[in-house]
Amino acid sequence: MTIPTEPDRTLDRRAAMAKARRSRRPSRLGSAAGVAERPDPPGARDGGFPVLLRKTWRQALDAPDLGTAVDILLTLGGHVPADIQLRALPVKEEAALKVLVGRNWRKDGRATDRPEDADTAFLGEIGLDRSGRVLLRVPSGGPLSGEADLVDGVLHVPWSAEDLADYQVELALATDRWHASVRDCRNWLHEAGAEGRREVLEQLTEAALRTAPFVLYAGDRRYTNFRDQNNLTGKTLRPGHPDCVLSSLRTIPLELWADSDVLLVVCLTLLVRSAGYARIEEANGTQLTLDHVALLLERTRAAYDAAAPGLPPVPAPAAHGVLALGELADALAARRRELMGSSVQLYREIHGPLMHKIERVSGPVKHEAARLEAVLCARLSERLPVSGATFAELSAALEGSPGWLAEPHGDFGSGLESLVYETVTAATVVFEADFAMSRGMRSLPALIEALRAEAYPTIAAWEIPHFFCCVVPSEESKQLFGGSASRLADTAWAISSRMQYNSWHFLVGNLPKVPEIAARDHFVPPAIPDIAYYSDQHHNGHVAARVRFTVRSPQAVEVLGRRFNGFMDLRLLRCEGLPFDEQDLLAADRASAFVAGATTLAAALVAEGTDIEITSFDSRWHWATIAG
Q1: Is 112 exposed, middle or buried (0-12, 13-18, 19+ CB in 10 A)?
Q2: Which secondary structure element, helix H or strand E, spans residue 554, and what is its range?
Q3: pLDDT tops 60 at residue 11
Q4: First-to-last CA distance in the chain?
């Protein structure tokens, strides 16, 4: 294919438009888009978030007792940790759930023994809304059906007089904590002054714009940059839009800020100080109060201290006030930089139904990860002109003779293409994945030319076809798509197209923020790997392709001395069966680093005058390789 670094000036406008209107779907290559003889086959009927919510609600209705029903709702039928939903509850609901069933995210939860014959003093309700949040009707609230978008009906919960008395006590304590948190946050914002508040709001607006979807709560109010519910800057609300809470606060006196807005601004600031924008996603689906932020940071502190026993421990905060938590956040940010510069492996655990992420510190490489690496390296040693029992040995061999990366190899026009394909193919087999894939940039010469000229607006204007993604399905994966090779090829190409978008989305996040870069849609490039569970929920492409369990290992590539985080990755995908685990991630991360190292070597060759272009891995290639 022609690398689309410049417009094809051999085509007149009419011919160019006709070319653009041709379908790129592998099974319809060359045909006009939108004129298929029959509709697409129906997608999976057992996927997507609405289906999960309906299943969860039915399970809760069938539960033998209230406690079991609540646990089903909190975990969405075993798909997420209960802790996330418990931390999503506002003050009244948190107090009520503790009294009724003893469930609480704090350490002071209690077991309850509710007598079945107690007189009913109040008939409460428990429901599940279409965002997946557990709702409770408390004595001061009306019926849930009039206030929420419920999945179905409600569970009626009788409250005894004793329950009401206990609830009053718990509510008073929780309300005092809430107001103390608000007062502390207001004082901090007041001390920051008008200019300090303006800088904070600008930083948080940029954070919301450059961060993947998140949904946060402060009291009864929801804040999100996700889809059409947006009230924060994101895909549909640009910076400065009056509907964006952060933008609107710039001109409002602090005294008129809502308590929930005060908590939003201060708590997000603490999270960003501790690890950058990505830490926001670790609060996804939970309440923003100082106590909740303290819990997240304390868990992080414990994990970091355990990961680096040779370093002085990060001091625990003296209190849960803004100043003390700010000091803790700064200390964690410093320690995180130390850990990422060492042999310690950080990664994120992603719970797809609630888009919640948890930063983890991996344990040591054990037998299973070492076995996977050995099998991968043995396969690559057979198929590539380098050999080694480990990826360190393979990389050393490659560094000793990198020239073949620019020469034809096997069925490919360059050794780099062959290395990408063989690594992805080996990963599909060795990890027992339904799909494996790796993405990158098609034209390293074009990138290097633009970097040397500091032509950052040119790079910002590049489109998705400037990138590639090699997707290799397993031999068995055709059965997931009705036994149809053409459906499998179409699905692989749809995945490839989305991964090309990811490369496009991340690349410019590594460049100087000239106006053209700042104006272009992009996220902060990822820097650590992750494991995802039940990702086939919200993203329409994930639902269609049945992306349930994944491992992703993004890697940096160096080009002309500039580090490009998230330039490429290796991704593993399972549509059903067991999820991947930490040992899978550790082995995959080493495989991904091998490909990234090869790409860095290829970029060095190009910088010295060698020409390397990636011409494979387009829709025609996926059709020929998969459905051929």
Answers
A1: middle
A2: strand 549-559
A3: no
A4: 18
> In whole angstroms, what is the distance from residue 69 CA to residue 97 CA?
12
Give the CA distances from residue 210 to residues 4, 187, 228, 234, 522, in Å, rounded to whole numbers and listed in that order: 27, 28, 17, 8, 6
- Which DSSP category does 580 fall into? P
Task: Please give the C-alpha separations between residue 267 and each of 216, 261, 280, 283, in angstroms, as whole numbers.
Answer: 11, 10, 9, 10
Phi-psi region of 327 (alpha: psi -120 to 50; beta: other; left: phi over 0): alpha
The region, left, alpha or beta by phi > 0 then psi within -120 to 50, assigned to residue 578 is beta
Residue entry with tokens 């200019």: 195
Nearest to 233 by CA among 627, 523, 593: 523
CA distances from 139 to 121, 129, 144, 263 (A): 10, 19, 12, 26
Q: Which domains does the chain have, with CATH numbers?
A: 49-112+119-159 (no CATH), 189-344 (no CATH), 367-626 (3.30.450.40)
pLDDT band at 535 (very low <50, low <70, confident <90, very high): confident
Structure tokens at 189: 């914002």
Q: Is 430 exposed, middle or buried (0-12, 13-18, 19+ CB in 10 A)?
A: buried
| CA gyration radius, the chain | 26
Confidence at residue 596, expressed as pLDDT on a 0 to 100 scale: 98
pLDDT tens by residue, 15-70 = 544 554 455 667 666 655 555 555 555 544 456 889 999 999 999 999 999 999 99
- The fraction of the chain above a pLDDT of 70, given in percent, is 91
For residue 7, CA distances in Å to 3, 11, 12, 34 come to 10, 9, 11, 25
Q: Model confidence at 6, in pLDDT bands (50, 70, 90)?
A: very low
CA triplet 476, 482, 486: central angle to 5 degrees? 85
